[in-house]
Amino acid sequence: MDDPPRSSEPPSGAGAAANAGPDLTVLVVDDEPGNVASLERIFQREGLRVLTADGPRRALELVRKHRVQVVLTDLMMPGASGVELLRALQEISPDTEVVVMTAYGTVEVAVQAMREGAYDFVEKPLERRAIVKSVRKAAERQRLVVENRSLRQELALLSPREIVGQSAALRRVLEVATQAAPSSATVLVLGESGTGKELIARYIHARSQRSAGPFVAVNCAAIPESILEAELFGHEKGAFTGAVGRREGRFARARGGTLFLDEIGELAPAVQVKLLRVLQEGEYEPIGGQTTRADVRIVAATNRDLAAEVETGRFREDLFYRLDVISVTAPPLRTRREDIPLLVDHFLGVYCKKNSRARLEVPPEVLQRLCDHPWPGNVRELENVMERAAVLCRGAALSLEDLPEAVARAVAPAVAAPSFPIGTPLDEIERTMIRVTLEHTRGDKPLAAQLLGISTRTIYRKLGEE
Ligand SMILES: Nc1ncnc2c1ncn2[C@@H]1O[C@H](COP(=O)(O)OP(=O)(O)OP(=O)(O)O)[C@@H](O)[C@H]1O
Ligand SMILES: [Mg+2]
């Protein structure tokens, strides 16, 4: 790293420093003490308040105690990676901007960090001017984001994200959600990744008697186990070493509203016990504090098969039953292909507008390809593909070249999955599955055998062709 200049050079951009205010705090995270010390000197010289941490754990402790506008972090540290730190930060302090430091030649990691929400990256060896500039820009953005937040919240309330789709499967889910919404019953939203579980949770909140209250989301997978309890229930001043102030937990913040516990399947056993208690008794204790009534409605979501997790002992059975009062399963996109054209139209509208361009046409062969794709990432994947197309497409109409390779490649037309009444003999089910799979592979027996996990010979045998 450049040695910071020893002269009594005035802080660069003194006006900007005044603007950013003396209470602009930057947190430097790096496991190399030398780096930390010189960065500390650089930022102090700029008139900023500097906090330092030798790793993600300490960094998260500090962020929970202090208002930190910008985190400047190394990406490669023992323990947790910088990317994990980023995810945890987004949960705990979503307004904090992150600038990552990367070693020369590891730009892919930096790109991943940017995808995970980092604001900027600077390459090592660090150059003083570049870091100061990047951190100042991050701080400015942080200020604007916070300023705009209340406005955005109002807007979000005015236009909650629409749930697009007309399929019977989706309509059934929304019917149950609509019925469940006005009650105070706990709702468990199941479904694969990207199927719209969070959207459904918001839909329930918006139609509940608590709609005027807050909707608070907690991603149980992104918050490290060691601080999840304090994060959920809060703590009193002095409750544990380092608890310098009192801190409100998510349960308290969601008072009068809905607490959305996302990725509930990832909850550690110790926290499962605590949550069970809230669901049973309707009250909880902040760490070191008084028993408090929990005035929240809980909606939980997971893409795991919770019943199976109970079987294997990874998820508490009693908690499962408390959560599973009313459950809805968001259907995978491949089982409701009739919604694909509507979603394509919806997302193209959104992203063409966002990119200030005229709405793109979708020729029939492109739409057909989109309808045939299996969409393992569900609506989220489709949304990303449409956003990408709205950015990349050069013409007035979408072409196959504007789609990612995996989507553009032709796949066999979808064959409807058969369903069997109870009591269907197994060998009949087998024969039907083999026939349907063969239709799907257009008669390619080795491929069908591979898909079914059996040998090609078995296919011949079962079909009586041997
Ligand atoms: N029916 C729908 N209509 C419009 N947008 C949708 C629909 N379903 C999902 N989306 C959009 O797709 C994206 C993913 O949805 P969401 O975050 O609710 O999914 P999820 O099931 O919670 O996914 P994950 O398990 O990955 O967290 C969001 O941007 C959401 O707005
Ligand atoms: Mg989600």
Walk me through what this model shows:
The protein is an alpha/beta fold and 466 residues long. The protein folds into 4 domains: 133 residues, 3-Layer(aba) Sandwich (Rossmann fold), CATH 3.40.50.2300; 162 residues, Rossmann fold (3-Layer(aba) Sandwich); 76 residues, Orthogonal Bundle (Helicase, Ruva Protein, domain 3), CATH 1.10.8; 37 residues, Arc Repressor Mutant, subunit A. α3 runs parallel beside α4 and α14 crosses α16. The radius of gyration is 26 Å and the shape is globular. It starts with 13 loop residues before the first helix and ends with a helix. The N terminus is likely disordered. The site of adenosine-5'-triphosphate (ATP) has 17 residues, from α8 and α16.
Key words describing this protein structure:
single chain, 466 residues, alpha/beta, Rossmann fold, Helicase, Ruva Protein, domain 3, 4 domains, five-stranded parallel β-sheet, 20 helices, 14 strands, disordered N terminus, binds adenosine-5'-triphosphate, binds magnesium ion
Give a count of the beta strands, DSSP E runs of length 2 or more.
14
Describe the strand arrangement of the main beta sheet, using strand numbers.
Answer: 2-1-3-4-5
Task: Report the structural category.
Answer: alpha/beta
Distance between the termini: 73 Å
- The domain tally reads 4
Which CATH first-tier class of the largest domain would you pick?
A: Alpha Beta
Range of helix content: 40-55%
Q: Estimate what percentage of residues fall within beta strands.
A: 5-15%
Give the CA-based shape. globular
Q: At the fourth CATH level, what is the homologous superfamily of the largest domain? A: P-loop containing nucleotide triphosphate hydrolases
| Overall pLDDT metric | 86
Radius of gyration: 26 Å
Biggest sheet statistics: 5 strands, parallel
The distinct ligands, each listed once, are:
adenosine-5'-triphosphate, magnesium ion
Q: Which ranges are low-confidence, i.e. pLDDT below 50, for 5 or more consecutive residues?
A: 1-21
